[in-house]
Amino acid sequence: MTTPLRLGIAGLGTVGAGTVKIVRQKAHLLAVRAGRPVEISAVSARNRDKDRGVPLTSYAWEDDPVTLATRDDVDVFVELMGGSDGPAKAATEAALKAGKDVVTANKAMLAVHGQDLALLAEANGRVLRFEGAVAGGIPIVKALTESLAGNEVTRILGVMNGTCNYILTRMESAGLPYDTVFEEANQLGYLEADPELDVGGIDAGHKLAILAAIAFGTQVHFAGVELEGIGKIVIEDIRAAADMGYRIKLLGVAQMTGRGLEQRMSPCLVPATSPLGQLEGGTNMVVVEGDSVEQIVLRGPGAGEGPTASAVMGDVMDIARGLRVSTFGQPAATLTAAQAAQSATPASYYLRMNLKDRPGALAKVATVLGESGISINRMRQYGHANESAPVLIVTHKTQRSALNEALTAMGRTGVVLGDPVALRIENL
Ligand code: HSE
């Protein structure tokens, strides 16, 4: 008789309940595929009485997740509570020390404590898996740690926060301002309890930092992610970018350069015809570029009950089958300390500004750009009925520091009204 794999699940929110449903409803399928039954021994959550749409009475209940994590009848602790510290971290550590494997969907915990937890897992001979932490149902962690293990990854790009992509694409399709669509997203329940995690780029930054660690063999370094949210994006930029053949995305980019590890999560323009440019609504997309594979594109739902529970179960099934992969794809002690690049790889930039409508105004702007060594690639001025002329400029590749110098100098020309908008254009 085969030994079942016994789970202890802590956290019965959307993802936890979804995971319980898969274990219950697909018991036969899971057992056949894993070669052994996958069962739940015990569960834990804050509120025992809440109806979660799935029967729980056949499982032991623990109020304390640490107690759940260390039960004798639990082989795998499934952490679905969230939060970088507190009960999630305490229970994960307790589980690893008690000799349990751990599956989690907790991006914040991995982004902040990933290295220590990976070391702890290995010291105890356990595995710590986290497919559900990055891009929901997209199997990007598995792709990087296993399928692409023969590559030197050169760059990872992606849209890793569905809420931001929903807001940006809805602004464009409905012609609505940011505040209106933000409220819409709130009503639809898309926003995290702290919306800044979404729109401030923090949630997506956590995911990028985790992927960068796997891709480049570095210790996860969330503090090294250059973060900028979508709060300043206005409908005028979305329209103007579209007019120039681009779409605006909250884009994560990680690449190893001669200057160190570059990790950026910020609003960028991408070609409208590229896979990232065509990504609509709450969907996620991760693009991986490797020396052998060239470029692959993974697209799918980045959140929600089914997709995230699907990712969690993928990890559980690996453990049930006896597949044991290091947390970040190589022994934690071999991960090097990430040196953050002090400057970003040169790029083209999109500039939008309003100029005083007077002779020579445009020439002054062109001169300032030229004096900073910045060459103009394309430029467009729109018809206008008042004193200010809307102008769009796409530059050739330049350093951000040169652009900053030019933007400061533009303020001194006396012809630029307000602050120009400058957004990076990411080539694909
Ligand atoms: N709030 C996230 C998103 C899902 O909108 O993609 C969880 O990471």
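^ L-homoserine complex. The chain has 14 helices and 16 strands. The mean pLDDT is 96.
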